[in-house]
Amino acid sequence: MMTDWNAMSDADFRKEVRGFFEAEYPEELRNLPHRPKFAEIAHWHRKLHAKGWVAPAWPAEYGGMGLNAAKLLIFYEEQQRWGVNRGRDMGVQMVGPLIIKFGTQEQKDYWLPRILSCEDIWCQGYSEPGAGSDLANLRTRAEIDGDDFVINGQKIWTTMAHDATHIFMLVRTDPDAPKKQQGISFLLAPMDQSGVEVRTITTLSGETEFCEVFFDNARTPRENLVGELNKGWTMAKALLSFERIFIGSPSLAQNALGQLESFARGRGAFDDPVFRDRFAQAALDVEDHAALYARFADQLKRGETLGADVSMLKIWVTECFQRITELMIEAAGPDGGTIGPLQVGNVGVDVLSSFYKARPGTIYGGSNEIQRNILSKAVLGLPG
Amino acid sequence: MLRESARTLFERAGGSGRSRKLRDSGGGWDADMIHELAEAGVFGVTVPEENGGLGMGLAAGGVIAEEVGRVIAPEPVVVTVGLSLGLLRRLCPDHAKLEQLVGGETVLAVAWQERGPNGGPAEASCRYADGKLTGGKAWVVGASGAQGFLVVAQGDAGPVLVLAQAGADGLSVEARRQADGSAMGELSFSGTPAERLASGDTVQDALADAVSDTTALAAAELVGLSARAFEITLEYIKTREQFDKPIGSFQVIQHRAVDLNVMCEVAQSGVREALGLMDGEADPKVRARLASRAKARAVTAAKKITRDAIQLHGAVGYTDEFDIGLYLNRALVLSAWLGDDAYHRRLWFMAREAEGAA
């Protein structure tokens, strides 16, 4: 019989999750500074899979933990607290919920177990060179040819595509639709074929986690269409509900603040009253953000749906995270441009890597400017 | 419940329009309003039920303070709940003045700070001996309308809390006019008769805790003020047209409005959380740190919101005719009182360091 996690008290559940992570999570994988390829974390994934904890948010009938919003937040909080890597979770976070919500029984039976076991590893094909903030402008075409869709076009910023077996993508299936949001469909496609080419993009920090994916008459069977043809846009929007609070969670900023504090202390930066004040500002920004986050989390726990106002969490915390890492660079003084860990006492703090890590947050998941557009219209009711 | 009744009471009385009228007629408060507030239980919100109060916590006091801030009401609600009753309920809960304060029959100002030779705060040197006060006190809120003064002074054997009547012999009150039309009192005593209410270290402890409460309540008042200032501004940018469009349709205005809104919400959540935590905390040092967190956040938000509100109103924001200026002026006064954001970030940091070292 499956455990009914939701019936547990929050405190008991937290203890259970914390206990498992602390006992079983491999020490060498804690707080990984980069996104790992699957091979690097496969041994951890096997443990998680055996425990039945790969998909905390999925309903139990599909092999998930069936956690409600409150328990889910606790799970993620504990995951972040212990520095547990999220693994290659695009399948669990995005494809699974999509198939569970809009897929056929055949699609569920076939794909869901393969996501849980990581037999298939997924990447997300949304953005294109001409479709970033204006995602509905995407141009990658998929045309029906016999039993297949034939795909032509290009995706970009595809995280870890070079380590994925499959891609779930938004494609244009009706170029003549009157509005560009119409005529978009959700397709699943295998990466291992001659019509798909992946090139890595080197980022500012020298990492290669983002990719470009080129489709030149790539093919995928027609049964890999998820949901109705030309209804992909609405479905993609429906998937965003929970991510919107997750993306505004305080943990990244909290962790960075802890790092800043020990680094600044070790470097004697607190002797400077100006630095002290800026640290206090940043620390209070994090504390008060956490209070706002708790307000939205309580809404979820009461079973309410979050409104568009949840976007303010993302704006505040990503900008705050950046300020914290900028203070780390400042505290590093002349070492502020040095690659790799800087010694403070007997620990090394990689200030540049933290600085870089904080940059994309204000760009991805709907740039903060897009979030401000959303808030101004949907929450403040401003015209135009 | 508490919020709705406080809001209704203030709105029925005329909202911010009433506050403007009181300012224009000399800057006092409305005695009838004091009675109405007392009837609603406002002053006794944190006073135990056995002493005639509602027996609720600081968080409930914060709810009321937010409503006071929304209509920039000049009545000394935060001063009474936080300071005068904060001292009396801790030091002499059975004194008749407590019941009178709760019942709105009297208003007492609290004189506890002193000005040093260079104008800044100084250690207390105001003396109390043989039933008489000598020396001076500064930054006394509500000094012009109060029926009496609770004065913290140095007695023969440590600090004392005494009560001096308004108009007592040897008491002079200099009213310093504030940006919002209120008066801040500078008191000087020369042999002023006063009744001793309490003495010893408990006075200093009660004062410190009452100041923490008041600081946090002032933060809540600023949160309510900021929220309303933002609403007024939002309404204005939706209706003011230039280039044949509402100015709120321009993206640069929209993004600024969003930033102010986010600032408001963060301040509201942070301050409410701090007040709630203070209710469950007994350690006065931790309570002081939480109060500093609240005031630092509230002042940062209120300064930004009221100043940007003037900018978004354009030239009319600079006139006295539009209400938004009243909010800026009240924010200036509330920010300076009991310490601004930079001051409280300093206290907060020091408290955190001390806790970490302990």
UniProtKB/TrEMBL annotation, chain A:
Gene3D superfamilies, alphabetized: Acyl-CoA dehydrogenase/oxidase, N-terminal domain, Butyryl-CoA Dehydrogenase, subunit A, domain 2, Butyryl-CoA Dehydrogenase, subunit A, domain 3
Q: Which residues form the Acyl-CoA dehydrogenase/oxidase C-terminal domain?
A: 230-379
Acyl-CoA oxidase/dehydrogenase middle domain location is 123-217
The UniProt record lists the Acyl-CoA dehydrogenase/oxidase N-terminal domain at 12-118
Molecular function via GO: flavin adenine dinucleotide binding; oxidoreductase activity, acting on the CH-CH group of donors
State the needed cofactors, names only. FAD
What are the protein's UniProt keywords? FAD, Flavoprotein, Oxidoreductase
What is any one of the record's Gene Ontology cellular component terms?
Answer: plasma membrane
InterPro entries in UniProt: Acyl-CoA_Oxase/DH_mid-dom, Acyl-CoA_Oxase/DH_mid-dom_sf, AcylCo_DH-like_C, AcylCo_DH/oxidase_C, AcylCoA_DH/ox_N, AcylCoA_DH/ox_N_sf, AcylCoA_DH/oxidase_NM_dom_sf, Mycobact_Acyl-CoA_DH
Keyword Repressor applies: no
Provide the family line.
Belongs to the acyl-CoA dehydrogenase family.
Task: Please state what the protein is called.
Answer: Alkylation response protein AidB-like acyl-CoA dehydrogenase
Task: State the organism of origin.
Answer: Salipiger aestuarii
| Source taxonomy | Bacteria, Pseudomonadati, Pseudomonadota, Alphaproteobacteria, Rhodobacterales
From TrEMBL, chain B:
Q: Which residues cross the membrane?
A: none
The protein's UniProt keywords, in alphabetical order, are: FAD, Flavoprotein, Oxidoreductase
| Acyl-CoA dehydrogenase/oxidase N-terminal domain span | 1-86
Instruction: Report a single Gene Ontology molecular function.
Output: flavin adenine dinucleotide binding
Q: Where is the Acyl-CoA dehydrogenase/oxidase C-terminal domain?
A: 217-347
**This protein's superkingdom?**
Bacteria
Instruction: Decide whether keyword Electron transport is in the record.
Output: no
InterPro entries assigned = Acyl-CoA_Oxase/DH_mid-dom_sf (IPR046373), AcylCo_DH-like_C (IPR036250), AcylCo_DH/oxidase_C (IPR009075), AcylCoA_DH/ox_N (IPR013786), AcylCoA_DH/ox_N_sf (IPR037069), AcylCoA_DH/oxidase_NM_dom_sf (IPR009100)
Q: Which cofactor does it need?
A: FAD
Q: Which SUPFAM superfamilies match?
A: Acyl-CoA dehydrogenase C-terminal domain-like, Acyl-CoA dehydrogenase NM domain-like
PANTHER family, alphabetized = ACYL-COA DEHYDROGENASE (PTHR43884), ACYL-COA DEHYDROGENASE FADE28 (PTHR43884:SF20)
Q: Which family does it belong to?
A: Belongs to the acyl-CoA dehydrogenase family.
Protein name, UniProt field: Acyl-CoA dehydrogenase
Give the species: Salipiger thiooxidans
